[in-house]
């Protein structure tokens, strides 16, 4: 029993009484679900089927027919996992995560967040809690994925404003992937890259604060909560735990035992903790899975839906996830996950780092030199709306796999509602080399700007990112480019898309 409600001695010291009354009540175990989730989850082996009652009372029968996992030649990591399922008698193929959204088939919405290969290889001890071949999630066909009034996008910046690392993608933080590692870290949450110290992180849901930094609410030992100085854990009324990591600042109002409101500022995006030195928000959700274990609830589709609802974009280009390959090996770039509200994307245009170009949702490229490439995708829909995204390609030397090429991360702020003449802050950091300097081309005809980051010598160095300011004088769509080369001449390059309004 907590202190409040306990019979107190009439002789208790007043200061003790005040302390008892102000101490948060710590439950012995996580609170019961007050808000049933809309999603239904089943774990299946190939050949198994299960009938599921959906949240609206309807039923769906799903059978797992087949599983295929394709690995790359560099890291031997799963790059594409496809499951064949039968849902209410209709056969369909689903690609697991890697920026794929639920689809509608057999009268339901359905996706596959994870398959067995991601759990067998992973160096993080099966954070999904999956013990079968694949996990399937289901919603009624006309249902939102998460209750609209209960979830918001957790970072105050534009969708895809910088690099991202979403579920099941092999990690390239800490300077990039490494060829032929014995164990692979598949990312299991959502990483939203951003400008360190500038982007507000907000509570995605109304929730109880279970830990903030190293302060923890008692009674949550058998849960996903793992306190760290840069991390906040909250628990919402669905019984889901939310983790916000790498914060450079935790808001003073966020205390264990208190509740935060959806959309409330809880901290500032940074690169603290096990960030690898690149500034981003790591956001994940954990809940009980069909196995009975705690496991990740893939939040990409929830974040996508929240972004759509809050910002009403007309079009979104998607050239992710990043690719890897050996020099001289063909790599496929795929923009097929791009989206338009009008339903028709009429043109996919690619511009490559070597000056070449191509048309089509999918293109193949061969890179002769090791390095980190960043290819520009421009899409145009039937209404004339345009958007840009960038495909990251890391290329390695097969003869010298230990000589890792440099990588680079850049971000800017603010990322939305930019008007002509507004001063923007640009930040950049190069990894795996201290040689040379970064060179910015802001894409508006202004002179190039040279800066120098620390090369990630100290991941948590508060001055690790090189900072510069720039203002665009005219409205328009701009592509900023920044690059740096190592002592062997191998280059890392990245781009940022900036949309500038007219200020009217």
Short summary:
With 504 residues, this protein is mainly beta.
Give the helix proportion (percent range). Answer: under 10%
Task: Tell me the major beta sheet.
Answer: 9 strands, antiparallel
**Annotation, overall tally of beta strands:** 37
N-to-C CA distance? 59 Å
- The CATH architecture term of the largest domain is Sandwich
Strand content: 35-45%
CATH topology of the largest domain, what is it called?
Immunoglobulin-like
Give Rg in angstroms: 24 Å
Per CATH, the superfamily of the largest domain is Immunoglobulins
- Spans of at least 5 consecutive residues whose pLDDT stays below 50 are 1-29
Structural class, from secondary structure content? mainly beta
In one word, what is the shape? globular
Number of alpha- plus pi-helical segments: 3
CATH class of the largest domain: Mainly Beta
Give the rounded overall mean pLDDT. 91
> What is the number of independent domains?
3
Verbal overview:
- A hairpin with a 7-residue loop joins strand 33 and strand 34.
- Strands 9, 10, 12, 13, 14, 15, 17, 19 and 20 form a 9-stranded antiparallel beta sheet that branches. A 5-stranded mixed beta sheet has the order 22-29-28-25-26, with no helix packed on it. Strands 31-37-36-33-34 form a 5-stranded mixed beta sheet, with no helix packed on it.
- Helix content is 5%, strand content 41%.
- The termini are far apart.
- The radius of gyration is 24 Å and the shape is globular.
- It folds into 3 domains: 101 residues, Sandwich (Tick-borne Encephalitis virus Glycoprotein, domain 1), CATH 2.60.98; 158 residues, Glucose Permease (Domain IIA) (Distorted Sandwich), CATH 2.70.70; 192 residues, Immunoglobulin-like (Sandwich).
- The protein has 504 residues and is mostly beta strands.
- It is built from 3 helices and 37 strands.
- The relative contact order is 0.11.
- The N terminus is likely disordered.
């Amino acid at each position: 029993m907590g202190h409040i409600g306990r019979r107190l001695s009439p002789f208790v010291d007043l200061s003790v009484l005040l302390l008892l009354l102000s101490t948060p009540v710590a439950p012995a175990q996580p609170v019961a679900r007050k808000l049933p989730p809309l999603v239904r989850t089943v774990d299946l082996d190939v050949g198994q089927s299960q009938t599921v009652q959906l949240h609206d009372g309807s039923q769906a029968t799903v059978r797992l027919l087949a599983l295929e996992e394709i690995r790359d030649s560099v890291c031997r990591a799963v790059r594409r996992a496809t499951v064949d399922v039968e849902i209410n008698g209709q056969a369909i193929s689903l690609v697991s995560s890697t920026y794929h959204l639920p689809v509608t088939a057999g009268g339901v919405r359905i996706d596959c967040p994870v398959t067995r290969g991601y759990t067998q290889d992973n160096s993080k001890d099966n954070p999904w809690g999956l013990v079968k071949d694949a996990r399937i999630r289901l919603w009624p066909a006309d249902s939102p994925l998460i209750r609209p009034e209960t979830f918001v996008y957790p970072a105050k910046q534009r969708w895809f404003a910088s690099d991202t690392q979403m579920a099941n993608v092999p990690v390239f933080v800490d300077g990039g992937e490494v060829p032929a590692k014995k164990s692979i870290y598949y990312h299991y949450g959502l990483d939203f890259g951003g400008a360190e110290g500038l982007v507000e992180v907000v509570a995605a849901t109304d929730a109880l604060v279970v830990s903030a930094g190293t302060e923890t609410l008692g009674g949550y030992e058998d849960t996903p909560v793992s306190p760290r100085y840069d991390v906040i854990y909250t628990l919402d009324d669905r019984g889901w735990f939310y983790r916000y990591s790498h914060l450079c600042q935790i808001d003073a109002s966020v205390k264990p035992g208190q509740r935060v409101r959806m959309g409330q500022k809880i901290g500032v995006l940074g690169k603290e903790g096990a960030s690898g030195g690149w500034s981003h928000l790591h956001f994940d959700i954990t809940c009980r899975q069909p196995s009975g274990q705690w496991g990740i609830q893939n939040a990409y589709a929830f974040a996508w839906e929240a972004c759509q609802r809050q910002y009403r974009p007309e079009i979104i280009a998607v050239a992710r996830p990043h690719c890897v390959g050996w020099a001289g090996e063909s790599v496929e770039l795929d923009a097929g996950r791009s989206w338009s509200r009008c339903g028709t994307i009429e043109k996919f245009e690619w511009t490559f780092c070597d000056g070449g170009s191509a048309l089509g949702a999918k293109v193949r490229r061969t890179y002769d030199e090791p390095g980190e490439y960043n290819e520009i995708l421009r899409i145009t829909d039937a209404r004339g709306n345009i958007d840009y995204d960038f495909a990251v390609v890391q290329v390695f030397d097969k003869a010298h796999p230990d000589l890792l090429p440099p990588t680079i991360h850049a971000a800017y702020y603010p990322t939305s509602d930019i008007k002509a003449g507004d001063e923007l802050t640009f930040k950049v950091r190069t990894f795996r080399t201290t040689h040379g300097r970064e060179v910015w081309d802001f894409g508006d005809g202004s002179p190039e700007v040279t800066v120098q980051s620390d090369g990630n010598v100290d991941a948590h160095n508060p001055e690790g990112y090189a900072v510069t300011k720039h203002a665009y004088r005219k409205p328009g769509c701009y592509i900023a480019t920044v690059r740096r080369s190592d002592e062997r001449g191998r280059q890392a390059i990245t781009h940022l898309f900036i949309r500038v309004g007219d200020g009217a």
